[in-house]
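During the reporting period the student researcher (J.K.) took over the structure-prediction task from the postdoctoral fellow and processed the backlog of single-chain submissions. One of the processed entries is reproduced below for the supervisory committee.
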Amino acid sequence: MRTLIIEPLSKEAFAPFGDVIETEGSEFFMINNGSTRRYHKLATVETAQPEDKAIISIFSAEALDMPLTIRMLERHPQGSQAFIPLLGNPFLIVVAPLGDAPESELVRAFRSNGRQGINYHRGVWHHPVLTIEKRDDFLVVDRSGSGNNCDEHFFTDDEQLLLAPHQ
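J.K. obtained the following structure tokens:
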């Protein structure tokens, strides 16, 4: 079983999978009589159909036991999905490139610094939210509409991966 190397999350490294949502290194302009920096269009909400709606939710996640065997990934073919940490805690991200099914040898892992959110592009394979803390809250921006918007892929025993953040 291959152990995933956890990379620090950066815009460049994550670009094939989506957007890193952060103020550090991002352009801004002043609004509200010069009292507020607006970091504009850090990510784009993608929806497949004109009648789809972008929605905002809060996910309250509990930590999974580590090390974690990665047995499955999911994707959202109808829209993007963004996770912004509300409590400032780092979290883990496991992703694979677009395709009919994720290839285990192309799976990558990243660690957010707690001030970074992510926006998965439409159709990108990813593991469900992975908090490091016992419990964590995320602002989630994704798509609401008709039709299936969650495909799951389960790896064979030989394809499964190990996520061990403390090694």
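The committee noted the following: The radius of gyration is 16 Å.
J.K. will present the remaining backlog at the next meeting.
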